[in-house]
Specification:
metal ion binding; 20% strand; G_ENGB_dom; 5 helices; GTP-bd_ribosome_bio_YsxC; alpha/beta; Rossmann fold; 7-stranded mixed beta sheet; magnesium; binds magnesium ion; binds guanosine-5'-triphosphate; single chain; P-loop_NTPase
């Protein structure tokens, strides 16, 4: 995947501030601190385009990024962060829900999980919610570099079992090593129905 351009467009909290709905969009969702912003940087081969942090709850707005003048990535605030107030959590939930259910240009969501953590009721609920709203979901299990390849497969199987889905629906990923990057791009481009910038290798970025 050749990244010719990747740039920050704007941040928003409400529909009036979203950028014009022109290009296909993919949103990135997941628990606080799971590695959403790092995964986006890794896909875009930009180390610092999206702010990352070891402090959970850092991304607090919807952040829009335009890629190759062809699609838009939306970095969402993480859910389930215990330290922000209940009111704040509710506000974030509403902000994310409004975006996902009303945005006409949204082609799908990459739901990011931690490969080290077997998903539970919250994740199953989220998947059912996306399904109910007819939002296609791509699952990415990140931080794979924390495990050996053999152990990665064991975790991937456990996760698939816990979610009740086929194994190959979970993309094993690492922002640190770039593992799974090409496969995740393939799935994203498929969802956006884009196939004109797949060709070539990307050693030059
Ligand atoms: N080892 C390893 N660490 C990672 C990986 N991805 C993210 N991290 C680390 O996890 C922490 C959180 O990463 P972020 O990308 O900021 O996570 P986030 O989900 O955007 O967090 P919020 O915006 O706060 O919800 C940082 O310390 C990252 O360096 C990965 O693939 N491997
Ligand atoms: Mg973030």
């Amino acid at each position: 995947m050749i990244i010719k351009s990747a740039k920050f467009i704007s941040s928003a909290t409400k529909p009036g501030n979203y950028p014009p709905p022109e290009l296909p969009e993919i949103a990135f969702a997941g628990r606080s601190n799971v590695g959403k912003s790092s995964l986006i940087n890794s896909l875009l081969k930009r180390k610092k385009l999206v702010k990352t942090s070891s402090t959970p709850g850092r991304t607090q707005l919807l952040n829009f990024f335009e890629v190759n003048e062809s699609l838009v990535f939306v970095d969402l605030p993480g859910y389930g962060y215990a330290k922000v107030s209940k009111e704040m959590r509710k506000k974030w939930g509403q902000m994310i829900e409004t975006f996902i259910t009303t945005r006409k240009t949204l082609h799908g969501v990459v739901l990011i999980l931690d490969l080290r953590r077997i998903p539970g009721g919250q994740e199953r609920e989220n998947l059912a919610w996306f399904d109910m709203n007819n939002i296609p979901v791509i699952l990415a299990a990140t931080k794979a570099d924390k495990f050996s390849r053999q152990r990665q497969l064991v975790q991937q199987k456990e996760m698939a079992k816990a979610l009740g889905i086929p194994l190959d629906l979970i993309h094993v990923f690492s922002a640190k090593t770039g593992q799974g990057r090409d496969e995740l791009w393939e799935s994203i481009l498929d969802l956006c129905e884009i196939d004109d910038f797949k060709q070539g290798d990307d050693d030059n970025v």
